[in-house]
Amino acid sequence: MPRRVAADFAVVPIDKIDRPPPPEDIPEAAAAIWRAVISNMRPTWFSPENFALLQTYCVLTVEKKRLEAAFSRLEDVVHNPNYERLIARHDKVATQALAHARALRLTPRANATNREARDPLRGMQKPWEL
C-alpha cells in the first residue's frame, strides 16, 4: 500500500459537506428559500445559533413575495383603499428582510471576503505610479 501525504487526509470530499436541512415547522416556500440560501453560501457560513435568524429571513421573504403578488392583483391602484395599507406593510416587511439579510451577511457587499473588494482606494494610481 503506497504512503499517503497528510494533505490527502485534510481534504473533505465535496459529497461529504453537511448542509443543514430547513426546520420542519416552516412553510414549503420558506424551506425552498432556506435551501437556496444554504446551498449558495460556504458550508460553514451558518452555525446553529444563526438558524433562528435565517428562518425568520426566509419567512419574511415569503411574506414580501406574497405582498408583491397582492399588488399585481390590484386593478385600480389609485382609488383602491387597500393600496396604502399594502404599501406600508410591504415596506415594513422588506426593511425587516433586508436587516436580517445584512445580519446574516447575505448581501454582496457584506460577504465580500476579497481584500481588494474592501479596499476603498482600489483602482486608483499609487503615488509612485504617477
Overall helicity = 40-55%
Number of helices: 5
- Largest sheet composition: none
Cα radius of gyration in angstroms: 22 Å
The helix/strand class is mainly alpha
Distance between the termini: 60 Å
- Count the E strands: 0
Question: Poorly predicted ranges (pLDDT <50, ≥5 residues)?
Answer: none
Proportion of beta-strand residues: under 5%
Shape: flat
Mean pLDDT: 82
* SSE string, helices as H and strands as E: HHHHH
Which features characterize this protein?
51% helix, 5 helices, mainly alpha
Question: In summary, what is this structure?
Answer:
This protein is mainly alpha-helical and 130 residues long.
Give an account of the 3D structure.
With 130 residues, the protein is mainly alpha-helical. It has a domain at 26-37 and 46-107. 51% of the residues lie in helices and 0% in strands. The protein contains five helices and no strands. It is flat and about 75 Å long.
Q: What is the strand and helix layout of this fold?
A:
Layout: H1 6-10, H2 28-40, H3 51-73, H4 83-103, H5 115-118
